[in-house]
Amino acid sequence: MKKILLLLVAATQLAVLGAAERSVKGRVACAGKGVANVVVTDGCNFAQTDDKGRYTLVASDDSRFVYLSVPAGYEVESLRSVPQFWLPIAENRSVYNFELRRKTQDDTHHGFIVVADPQVWARKEFPMLAEAMEDIRTTVAGYDIPFHGMCCGDIISFDHTFYPIYNQTAERSGLTFFNTPGNHDMTLYGRTFETTLSKYEDIYGPSCYSFNVGKAHYVVLDDNFYIGRDYFYIGYIDERQFRWLERDLSYVPEGSTVFLMLHIPTTLSPSDRERFKYDNISHIATNARHLHKLLAPYDAHILSGHMHTTSNQIVTDRLYEHNIPALSGAWWQGTLCTDGTPRGYGVFEIDGDDVTWYYKSTDHPADHQLRVYYGATYPQFEGQLVADIWASDPSWRVEAAFDEEAPQPMERFTTYDPAAQKMYADTSHLDHKYIYPSKADHFYRATIPAGARKAQITATDRFGRTYTQIIEFAR
């Protein structure tokens, strides 16, 4: 009897295992030839192709996709700007084959455009999105290296039927865009977080994936966590993604350049890295320190959005977070973000392990990097010369030279941008009444000497590029 019971238990365990996992297989090929060492995953388990491009993967029963970490030097088909690196797992199907294409250019030297929060709310906003994508196309045309696009989430505002129109519009950039969901890309009001991503995944595939370009490894995560309480979410990375990321990074040599994209920032200031604040749980990923720890062996850059404003954080000497301002400005209601940053996007150039970047304002030349105010015109800055240098970080050198005197350093401080204050002082004519100016830390000031007639402000970024503006004071 005991033997029979043991056999029944064993059979039950096998049945449970069979229900929880299944074996899938396939081939990754390029022009009919198998591609070796390609990483394949279901978002939980991993496999690597052999020298003939074949793989076998144990897939979890609750996984929705089988997909690739696209290898450097290759690309996948792009459908309306969306890379097709995944296949949906179907019942009674066990074979999943992938086709890669060789890139026409060496991608060791490459670039990417990063946008955040297009957040299209109404159809009437698509022409403005189209203008932004044309601006991106023009910027990329000035390079002779391959480029791809990245979007840090909040692709749309609430209407998920806009995704096809958005993708068709994004295609005008000429780029393939790798995307991550934002809180507005979730389907909310369900009972759990696990039900929120179906409409996003129908169009864009898995929300947790990676790919490779040149010597750089790119990772995309979802840190929007809906807590089942009306329309409410927090910034949080769940354990499944952490385990997946640990496995994904195990294929990446330590010391490599890694770009990690998510929607909600991991940090916006040194203070939020020092202590937890309950009133900040929807603005930063609450368990970000564990992500920072995983990235510590790499030269890493985090790309985030969500705030619609600019924040550049030097977390360590090997980790930098770029919180990208909104492509939509103030939700397509004005050309400035609420902190005074012009609407636009980041432009990154990677040459081997060397990374450079700048912020490009749409409808402005690339050297449009600052706006200057002084006290006679703006009473809140009485006696001061103030520059808003939105793309700056504390490593920038910013100086003011008055008349023929030697230049002096300008002090970095936090304030409101007067142009944004004026633009959003009256919201009665706007579609969204919740828009209001916000403070930021990318301002610099110097005291104006008595009798000064003019000033020259020179900002030098971390790469030695200089931006200059000359102001003549009203008498």
What does it look like?
This protein has 475 residues and is of the alpha+beta class. It is 17% helix and 33% strand. The protein is built from 8 helices and 32 strands. It has helices at 2-20, 126-141, 163-170, 198-204, 239-249, 270-274, 288-295, 418-423; strands at residues 21-30, 33-34, 39-41, 46-48, 54-60, 65-69, 74-75, 78-79, 82-83, 86-88, 98-102, 109-115, 147-151, 177-179, 209-213, 216-220, 224-226, 233-235, 257-261, 299-304, 311-316, 319-323, 344-351, 354-361, 371-374, 384-388, 397-402, 408-409, 411-415, 440-447, 454-460, 466-472. The strands form 8 sheets. It has a 6-stranded mixed β-sheet with strand order 15-16-19-20-22-21, with no helix packed on it. Strands 1, 2, 5, 7 and 11 form a 5-stranded mixed β-sheet that branches. Residues 1-19 have low confidence and may be disordered.
Radius of gyration: 25 Å
> Helicity range of the residues?
10-25%
Adjacency order of strands in the biggest sheet: 15-16-19-20-22-21
Compute the number of strand runs.
32
Largest sheet: 6 strands, mixed
Question: Beta-strand percentage?
Answer: 25-35%
Mean pLDDT: 94
